[in-house]
Amino acid sequence: MARYQVILAYDGAHFMGSQRQANSRTVQGELEKALHKLGWSDRSVLIAGRTDAGVHASGQVAAFDLEWSHADDDLVRALNANLPADLAVREAHVVAADFHPRFDALSRRYCYRLFSHPVRDPLREKTAWRTWPAVDGALLAQAASLLIGTHDFAAFGSPTGPKGTTVRTVMKAGWRPVEEDKWQFEIQADAFLYRMVRRLVFIQAAVAQGRVSAQVVAQSLAGPAGVPAGELPAGLAPAHGLTLVEVTY
Amino acid sequence: MARYQVILAYDGAHFMGSQRQANSRTVQGELEKALHKLGWSDRSVLIAGRTDAGVHASGQVAAFDLEWSHADDDLVRALNANLPADLAVREAHVVAADFHPRFDALSRRYCYRLFSHPVRDPLREKTAWRTWPAVDGALLAQAASLLIGTHDFAAFGSPTGPKGTTVRTVMKAGWRPVEEDKWQFEIQADAFLYRMVRRLVFIQAAVAQGRVSAQVVAQSLAGPAGVPAGELPAGLAPAHGLTLVEVTY
């Protein structure tokens, strides 16, 4: 018996999120079904980051204890043979018996893609948010730079942990052009509040469309006392633009 | 009444190709249904390029005659309001009354994406072919360069037109890296044989994996007499990696 860490990739379109729920198709539920076929019989696997319905992953991390007498690559193959087409195990490694993918994580990295166009685009909208009017690249960069550092993100999400703090440290945040009128946001932080990335993308797009001033964002990062709630528009960027890229330990 | 040219984009995953067929969901069928709601009553729209089930498009072209008293952008909006989420009209323009999207086309441009990895990857496999072992970039480039020019492509597809010739002129063909271990092929030609792009990609991947020599490809381009059929492996790259990008007039 050993504890295994696996890296998961999934197309989130047809999952009701990462965490197991009764009567819903979830990443955790599908992984546990595949593990049962390999003789696993624990109550549940551990998962690093909760992703909402529709959110994708290229580097989600899960862990479980398994009696497995073959090579790691064979475990990857055996699991993938039992997983649906929209979920795959990319890697498997033996880790310390007390490894916990969520509590041991040092940072999470997400990316979010958006493009600006007045007309819808079925191919690009599979994994990117179409938003209009056009976003200004310099304003996106300015908004992202405000996020870097340790701030109180209470205006941008709800706490998930028992401690209830809304202070998070963002190590990296920035936008880069990926093709004509399309932008990719990357953000790495020690941890994220619930829906924080989608909320941050929504607000940055509002800044880059001239609807919100960067100053209001800067004030909001001072915590609940910073800015009257009414000045920061409500809203979330849609789930299908978001991908969990990496969890570091 | 005027003839309109429209640029279509679609995610091909849930279409049985571009051409109308009885009892199948097709691009042409869905466009005609949307047009009927705007008062169009002709027998069929004209479409530039036939795409197979699963093949995507960002620049497919269709044409039809319509009585429309509003602006072109209003026609785009009215059609998109009646089209399913995986099909959109990107642009609409009035053209000459005798414009034909297929017979007037000067060239077609396709792109094909592949990536090399031993393990499947649900997100990337939506629009790219996973092939393994790894492809060699220099061999891909060498294979693509052979295609440029006027050749008899009989070994790479079947004729679709009434003339039955298998000679085609390729203006551009080349591969570029798009991200780690991922490649994008672009090819532009006056016209393509049936399934020619997928066949060319399959053979080039075989060259880049060291399974077929570039010399065999060069000989095959001399036409049916060039190479014994047995030396060129049978097979097609899968439809989901292919996108019709542009038709020029």
Structure description:
The structure is a homodimer of 249-residue chains. Chain A has 249 residues and is of the alpha+beta class. The radius of gyration of chain A is 19 Å and the shape is globular. Chain A starts with a strand and ends with a strand. In chain A, a hairpin with a 2-residue loop joins strand 8 (167-179) and strand 9 (182-189). Chain A has helices at 27-36, 72-82, 137-147, 196-208, 214-220; strands spanning 2-10, 46-47, 56-66, 87-95, 107-116, 129-131, 149-152, 167-179, 182-189, 242-248. The first copy, chain A, folds into two domains: 2-95, Alpha-Beta Plaits (2-Layer Sandwich); 107-248, Pseudouridine synthase I, catalytic domain, C-terminal subdomain (Alpha-Beta Plaits, 2-Layer Sandwich), CATH 3.30.70.660. In chain A, strands 1, 2, 3, 4, 5, 6, 7, 8, 9 and 10 form a ten-stranded mixed β-sheet that branches. In chain A, helix 1 crosses helix 2 and helix 3 packs antiparallel against helix 4. The A-B interface holds A 9-11, 56-58, 76, 80, 85-91, 119-123, 125-127, 243 and B 9-11, 56-58, 76, 80, 85-91, 119-123, 125-127, 243.
Describe, in short, the structure shown.
The structure is a homodimer. With about 250 residues, the first copy, chain A, is α+β, with helices and mostly antiparallel strands. Chain A has five helices and ten strands, in the order βαββαβββαβββααβ.
Task: Note the main attributes of this structure.
globular, ten-stranded mixed sheet, Alpha-Beta Plaits, 249 residues, alpha+beta, 31% strand, homodimer, 2 domains
